[in-house]
């Protein structure tokens, strides 16, 4: 229990220990703790931000989907309209074509009928003359009866 | 442990005597052979065991913490780093709670006090005879000294030199920062103008010496109570361990009873050594805070 130089020794030792702790122990540890705290805070903030971003992109996706759906519907409507148009135009074209063909056919028929009529007319005149001559049993002067025959042919 | 050769009183005295190196009254320097010789050396002596253990423990503390500090990263901490960080965080929380000014010295000081005092107190939990007997055997067989004359006190905080040394260091820091923060005049004013003050100059002159006596006593009481509290607790705890150890010499029944007592006291003592380290640290922080606070009115 003697108080002696140990007192001074302990005071100096203590002071040296404090100095060493203050210089070499405390700052690095506090630095590491501080850095870690910052890192954790940053990480948490980043996670929160990512969550927010995810929410945002989810909303964006929904919006894009909605837009795409509207667009698709629009396109489909347009396509339908276009198809109807095409069908309509095809129909009208076909009608015109059919009409044209019919008209052509009619004309041809008309022509043929006309031609046949002409032929028939000629033949009928000849037949009529032959028949008449046979009936009359005498030669008819064709030239003399020309006007009569022509009149007859025209009546046919 | 008491043997047939030595009495209980001798056993206790042996345990309470430091291994002292100093100047004998006749002028030559050497190791004291017993307590009376150590006493006769007066101030010019040094307790080798106290110095050895306190410095060894302090160096262990610093090496461990320095190792953790050197490899301290912000990444996932390892075992040692984790422990060191936990302790530092604990100390830092306490400093922030009690110390309001800004001083980068206070937290390292608190950490040093807490760990160092805890480690010195912890030596109390080692069975009281292990290290002294080992030292005795070493002295006898290696250095050829009479084992009874080898004194080896292993708990540095049961040496008042240690606790007073620390409290004097804290006191000097208090003085230094008081003068630095408040100025010499401010510090003198703090000592003389409280708690009694008067607008009347004549009355004020009467109050000054009264104030000074009161404030000076409370100032001196701080380092005194700081060191005596730690010393008293540790000394008493060590004493009880020694007394329990005496029972091992009293037959097997007493020995078994003593074993249980020692176990119980050691478990209880874990609380005391931690608490004392914590109290020393907290009070040192509070005293430093007082030294830094400028306008303090009682």
Structure write-up:
The longest helix of chain A is centred in the middle third of the chain and has 131 residues, at 6-136. Chain A contains two helices and no strands. Chain A is rod-shaped. Chain A has helices at residues 6-136, 146-155. With 156 residues, chain A is an all-alpha fold. Chain B is mainly alpha-helical and 298 residues long. Chain B is 69% helix and 3% strand. Chain B contains nine helices and three strands; from the N terminus they run H-E-E-H-E-H-H-H-H-H-H-H. Chain B has a three-stranded antiparallel beta sheet. In chain B, helix 1 (8-15) packs across helix 8 and helix 7 (160-192) runs parallel beside helix 9 (251-292). The longest helix of chain B has 46 residues, at 201-246.
- The helicity of chain A comes to over 70%
Output mean pLDDT of chain B: 88
Query: Largest sheet of chain B, order of strands side by side?
Result: 2-1-3
Work out the number of β strands of chain A. Answer: 0
- Helix-strand makeup class of chain B: mainly alpha
Could you name the ranges of chain B where pLDDT drops below 50 across 5 or more consecutive residues? none
Instruction: Give the N-terminus to C-terminus distance of chain A in angstroms.
Output: 169 Å
Gross morphology of chain A is rod-shaped
Number of domains of chain B: 1
Tally of helical runs of chain A: 2
Number of helical segments with 4 or more residues of chain B: 9
Order of helical and strand elements of chain B:
HEEHEHHHHHHH
**Approximate helicity band of chain B:** 55-70%
**Pair with the most extensive interface?**
A-B, 33 and 55 residues
Q: Give the helices and strands of chain A as they follow along the chain.
A: HH
Rg measurement of chain B, Å: 23 Å
Please, what is the oligomeric state? heterodimer
Largest sheet of chain A: none
The portion of residues forming beta strands of chain A comes to under 5%
Total beta strands of chain B = 3
Q: Unreliable segments of chain A (pLDDT under 50, ≥5 consecutive)?
A: none
């Amino acid at each position: 229990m003697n108080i002696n130089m140990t007192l001074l020794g302990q005071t100096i030792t203590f002071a040296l220990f404090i100095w060493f702790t203050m210089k070499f122990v405390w700052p690095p540890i506090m630095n590491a703790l501080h850095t870690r705290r910052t890192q954790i805070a940053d990480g948490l903030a980043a996670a929160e931000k990512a969550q927010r971003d995810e929410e945002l992109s989810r909303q964006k996706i929904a919006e894009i989907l909605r837009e795409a759906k509207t667009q698709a519907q629009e396109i489909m409507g347009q396509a339908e309209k276009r198809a109807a148009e095409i069908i309509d135009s095809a129909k009208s074209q076909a009608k015109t074509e059919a009409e044209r063909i019919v008209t052509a056919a009619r004309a041809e028929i008309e022509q043929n009928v006309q031609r046949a009529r002409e032929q028939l007319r000629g033949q009928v005149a000849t037949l009529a003359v032959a028949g008449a001559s046979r009936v009359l049993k005498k030669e008819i002067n064709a030239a003399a009866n020309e006007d009569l025959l022509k009149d007859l042919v025209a009546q046919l | 442990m008491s043997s047939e050769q030595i009495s209980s009183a001798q056993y206790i005295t042996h345990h309470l005597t430091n291994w002292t190196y100093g100047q004998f009254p006749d002028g030559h320097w050497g190791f004291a052979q017993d307590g009376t010789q150590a006493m006769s050396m007066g101030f010019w002596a040094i307790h080798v065991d106290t110095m050895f253990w306190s410095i060894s423990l302090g160096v262990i503390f610093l090496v461990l913490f320095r190792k953790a500090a050197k490899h301290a990263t912000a990444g996932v901490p390892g075992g040692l780093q984790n422990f060191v960080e936990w302790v530092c965080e604990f100390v830092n929380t306490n400093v922030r709670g009690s110390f309001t000014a800004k001083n980068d010295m206070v937290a390292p000081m608190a950490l040093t006090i807490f760990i160092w005092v805890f480690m010195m107190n912890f030596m109390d939990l080692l069975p009281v005879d292990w290290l002294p007997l080992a030292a005795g055997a070493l002295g006898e067989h290696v250095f050829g000294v009479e084992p009874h004359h080898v004194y080896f006190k292993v708990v540095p905080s049961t040496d008042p030199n240690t606790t007073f040394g620390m409290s004097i260091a804290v006191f000097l820091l208090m003085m230094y920062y008081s003068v630095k923060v408040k100025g010499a005049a401010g510090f003198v004013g703090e000592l003389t103008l409280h708690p009694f003050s008067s607008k009347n100059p004549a009355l004020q002159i009467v109050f000054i010496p009264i104030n000074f006596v009161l404030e000076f006593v409370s100032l001196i009481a701080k380092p005194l109570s700081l060191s005596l509290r730690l010393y008293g607790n540790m000394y008493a705890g060590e004493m009880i361990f020694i007394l329990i150890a005496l029972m091992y010499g009293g037959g097997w029944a007493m020995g078994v009873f003593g074993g249980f007592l020692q176990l119980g006291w050691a478990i209880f003592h874990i609380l005391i050594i931690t608490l004392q380290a914590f109290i020393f640290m907290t009070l040192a922080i509070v005293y430093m805070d007082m030294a830094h606070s400028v306008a303090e009115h009682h």
